[in-house]
Amino acid sequence: DMFLSCIKSGLYKDALFNRVIKSFVSQGGELDETILEREKQHPELPLKRIAAEIDTTLFHKKGALGAGRNDNPEKSSYINQIYFVAGKLQTDEQLNAIEKRNGRKFSRKQREIYKSIGGTPHLDGDYTVFGEIVKGLEIADAINYVQTNKDDLPLESVLFNIKTIKKNR
């Protein structure tokens, strides 16, 4: 619901992708460094964060939309950062290793999706997924292959807008 209100308020209108890592994620919104610097300079005005909403039915398959965050024990997300998963195809061996490392099991459906369309399964359980791209995945793929500098910042500005979202619950 928080993301829906942010979308309606125009928070993600003409936002910039500022972190693009091929076959992993494309992230946009405000930079971590900017947020942390502002919080440091104005501790009385901390950025609103969203409590982690880990839902095992929403996972990091290709095209998933998630909430960006820094490393924090609560796994709370920044309200003004989102990412979409580019990911890559996974093998049973890779999925087994992730299960062992993270102590979580993938469902049969998740395994099939990770093996057939790909994703970033190692993020499951640690980052909030709140939606998915249902049309235009080829555009998301193109964004994930833009040229970037050594800090994963696109060399040319790539803007995004989120105007509407369909809620299926």
Explain what this protein looks like in three dimensions.
With 169 residues, this protein is of the alpha+beta class. The chain has a domain of 117 residues: Cyclophilin. 27% of the residues lie in helices and 18% in strands. The protein contains five helices and eight strands, in the order H-E-E-H-E-E-E-E-H-H-E-H-E. It has a six-stranded antiparallel β-sheet, covered by helices on one side. The longest helix has 11 residues. It is globular, with a radius of gyration of 16 Å. The chain starts with a helix and ends in a 9-residue tail after the last strand. The mean pLDDT is 90.
Please give the number of β-strands: 8
CATH class of the domain at 2-86 and 123-154: Mainly Beta
Secondary-structure element sequence? HEEHEEEEHHEHE
Strand order of the largest sheet: 7-4-6-2-1-8
The end-to-end distance, rounded to whole angstroms, is: 11 Å
What is the CATH architecture assignment of the domain at 2-86 and 123-154?
A: Beta Barrel
CATH topology of the domain at 2-86 and 123-154: Cyclophilin
Q: What is the overall pLDDT average?
A: 90
Structural class, by secondary structure, is alpha+beta
Rg, alpha carbons? 16 Å
**How many helices in DSSP terms?**
5
Fold topology:
Elements: H1 2-9, E1 15-21, E2 25-29, H2 32-41, E3 49-50, E4 64-67, E5 77-78, E6 81-85, H3 92-102, H4 108-116, E7 129-132, H5 137-144, E8 159-160
Antiparallel strand pairs: 1-2, 1-8, 2-6, 3-5, 4-6, 4-7
